[in-house]
Amino acid sequence: MTKCQVCFRHCDLKEGQTGFCGARIGLGDRVVASNYGSVTSIALDPIEKKPLHRFFPGSKILSVGSYGCNLRCPFCQNSEISWGEEVKTFADTAETVEPEQLVRIAQKYVSERNIGIAYTYNEPLVGYEFVRDTAKLAHEQGLKNVLVTNGTASLSVLEEIGPYIDAMNIDVKCFSEKTYDEVLGGSLPMTKAFVAEAVKIAHVELTCLAVPGISDDEEMMREMTGWIASLQDKDGRIIGNEIPLHVSRFFPRFHMTDRAATPVADVYKLAEIAREKLKYVYTGNC
Predict the structure, then answer these.
(1) pTM higher than 0.85 for the full model?
(2) Burial level of 285, CB count in 10 A (0-12/13-18/19+)?
(3) Would you state the torsion angle of the CA atoms of residues 15, 20, 22, 24, taken in this order, to the nearest 10 degrees?
């Protein structure tokens, strides 16, 4: 039995056993990514769709997803490739693309204002080895690498991929340890630690989806933005108020189709509160 070190779960995996995320498997005395090179989604997107508003605005980026996730958000917008019964189908039918192939595809779209590759759609860090290998090659070809993640990963994973990542959008789901644990199946302390280190090595923007009853509390927003504003760069300088935050409107999805969309006025109010501490606050889906 071998212990996975990617996230706080530390799944103990027997030979051939798959971890909680659905993307890591025990193999001898190692844990490997069963989704390595398995591409379920690919598109040339505006960089603002990641969302990144202060990183090469107006450009495009080749966005690539695989399968698997280590959270269990009931409002998941990509459940087909993240978790649930459909993931196995995607795992069995995904196209295999080697890092070299993906870099060539990205290069082909440079003439269409593509600046590089974004690892997104599912949770890319459950298969961080593919991100690491592809991002390294992309950098060698002068391309940018963008990571869109829930930040539920160990700092050792960040250390491996960090040298090759230029920008990240990290999803801070809410600011309650209890909700992270009981509703999302995650770890707020791990996500906070990941964010705190990520801002030292790359351009980082954060996203909070304003879900009614989960992440739309005004005091929670004040607490979260106060923490963001306190973040420091690698030299110990406080730079948190410069970190962009995207406050997005929730629409009924997945296991939360019985809940109404977040009122637009509530999203705008949360954004106003965030601006008390942060310089760059954007609203989405309004």
Answers:
(1) yes
(2) middle
(3) -50
Number of other CB atoms surrounding residue 122 within 10 Å: 31
H or E segment and range at residue 192: helix 188-198
Residue 167 main-chain phi, psi, to 5 deg: -150, 150
CATH of 2-284, one of 2.130.10.10, 3.20.20.70, 3.40.50.1970, 3.30.200.20: 3.20.20.70
The whole-angstrom separation of Cα 241 and Cα 227 is 10
Which pLDDT tens digits describe the chain residue by residue (286 residues)?
A: 799 999 999 999 999 999 999 999 999 889 999 999 999 999 999 999 999 999 999 999 999 999 999 999 999 888 778 776 556 666 666 779 999 999 999 999 999 999 999 999 999 999 999 999 999 999 999 999 999 999 999 999 999 999 999 999 999 999 999 999 999 999 999 999 999 999 999 999 999 999 999 999 999 999 999 999 999 999 999 999 999 999 999 999 888 888 899 999 999 999 999 999 999 999 999 9
Q: Side chain identity at 70, as an amino acid letter?
A: N
